[in-house]
């Protein structure tokens, strides 16, 4: 009996170890595919940015159209935005049974919203726009780095990514309590995308922000970016929920996102940022950056930079003497001292007051010209503009340097190795090592960093000698049972206390084997990824099959697959799940690829080579479609398609007349309704692929 018990125990331990190893492998698959999609998004965006830089519009109308299409959110000035998103003109019908909002907001309004969203009710568009209008006004007065003290509340609760998962937010409030004067919260970005209730999360958080402005703090994440929203679902969600006023609501969200603070500092000792840091992260610069200029952190405006450099050098006292290489004289030093006539005597108060107002206005106009603010913008001073005026005599930074600072804190990840290097896995930000963390903490007298941005199996994870804490609040992020969510509470002693949870009720009832069954979906996603690169894989396999036997070793198979997909996965360990049969350690790669094709064709009855192209490019095609669909109507107008095709043809050196483009767009419009929907858009690529 004793020997039998030992054998059973050994068998059980081996079984649990195998399941744990499979769980870790599937986790790596999910994460690698997620990061490769983010990399594709940045590559696609860089491609469009390159086209924009190289394209020369033939007319002012064409230039304005292209600018509006690809620079969403930047064409509206203050007054224009207020007029465009006029919520007062929207009537609430008597038949509306959802929650009502009146300003200033009260705690009862927040409670009503929570109850309404639990019952799947929707807030009327008028109230959404009104809420966004008030939130924007509040955010504009906040500094880039919010300061929180534990002296005024017993503890501060820090939450990580929520990604549209409203059940997780409800569970946090149920376990920890609603925001109140004695219950402070910091939400560390990535409120939107991927999940289906991003809008409801934002409405709740903005409501509590306005009710308790000193107790609720919101940081910007890398998904609070309209270019990222085009790919990962928030844009689509808003347009589906608000078909009439969705475009206005999206425009306001885009503008509100760029006013979100960049970081939060607790007791001057704990810094909370969404992504991470780099070896060049400078909190002094981040304090003074005009954060609203970065509507999309993925896109940096380059054209105005050259015109600003002489002005910036002049402010810093670096104006070069003589002429430059082109023989152009260096820009004269711009002084911020009053250039008006000598100040009149203070005895004549009226005259002195008039002179003072004129002098101040001249300095404001000078500062506006230096920072590229047009005269059509309002007189209202924001926090960042006040800092700019106050510190006008201190060093100024180029837009490139400021953009790099914001990009790094939103997109970076920690790594166990020393140093700092480019984050090629995500495509943005950097990887920073423990030495970078140590120097940064010492420089600013900090105890540790709290960041989010990465899904963790337990909901949180320490690294860099417990100096960097990652907190992630979206449970079941990849699949049911894939991970826990967590939040952290900090008291006056700044010792972190964690609370973990699973928002899905069924996740608690799953056995370990059942949890692995759910995670098998990772292998399905990986097989789709392999199938989408069939052509490239065949070329890679043939390079190892020099005798044209149709067979390669499993070691060569693993090397070839990684060279094509570049996911950084342990392919030899994953082989049993991906390669079902081998002969004497050799793989017949053509039959293996045929099996992958059969698996995908069983889901969609399309030609195999064509299906491969669609699988590989569908996400990019959908993003391109949404970029072209400037008004987010779900349809591309003929004009939108024509202007975009001109952009592509200029890049590919294809000469097409307007008549030729018109014929092309009519041929794609299969149902002849004057617009192109997404299915017609995909069908056009399928027809192109089928052409000999």
Describe the structure.
With 692 residues, the chain is α/β, with parallel strands linked by helices. It has 4 domains: 1-57; 78-300 and 406-501, 4-Layer Sandwich (Purple Acid Phosphatase, chain A, domain 2); 513-602, EF-hand (Recoverin, domain 1, Orthogonal Bundle), CATH 1.10.238; 610-688, Orthogonal Bundle (Recoverin, domain 1), CATH 1.10.238. The strands form 5 sheets. A 6-stranded mixed sheet has the order 1-5-6-10-12-11. Strands 4-3-2-13-14 form a 5-stranded mixed sheet, covered by helices on one side. A 3-stranded mixed sheet has the order 7-9-8. Helix 7 links the parallel strand 3 and strand 4. The protein is globular. It starts with a helix and ends with a helix. Residues 302-341, 367-381, 384-394, 602-615 and 687-692 have low confidence and may be disordered. Residues 532-567, 616-651, 656-691 form the EF-hand domain. Pfam families: EF-hand_7, Metallophos, PPP5. It comes from Loxia curvirostra (Red crossbill). It catalyses: O-phospho-L-threonyl-[protein] + H2O = L-threonyl-[protein] + phosphate; O-phospho-L-seryl-[protein] + H2O = L-seryl-[protein] + phosphate. Its cofactor is Mn(2+).
Concise synopsis of the structure shown:
This protein is an alpha/beta fold. Helix content is 50%, strand content 9%. Helix 9 (234-241) runs antiparallel to helix 10.
Number of helical runs?
A: 26
SS strand fraction:
5-15%
Structural class: alpha/beta
Low-pLDDT residue spans: 302-341, 367-381, 384-394, 602-615, 687-692
CATH superfamily of the largest domain: Metallo-dependent phosphatases
Q: How would you write the strand order of the largest sheet?
A: 1-5-6-10-12-11
Shape: globular
Distance between the termini: 73 Å
Top-tier CATH class of the largest domain: Alpha Beta
> Which architecture of the largest domain would the CATH scheme give at its second level?
4-Layer Sandwich
Mean pLDDT, all residues? 77
The percentage helix is 40-55%
Main β sheet profile: 6 strands, mixed
Count of separate structural domains:
4
The total beta strand count reads 18
CATH topology of the largest domain, which one? Purple Acid Phosphatase, chain A, domain 2
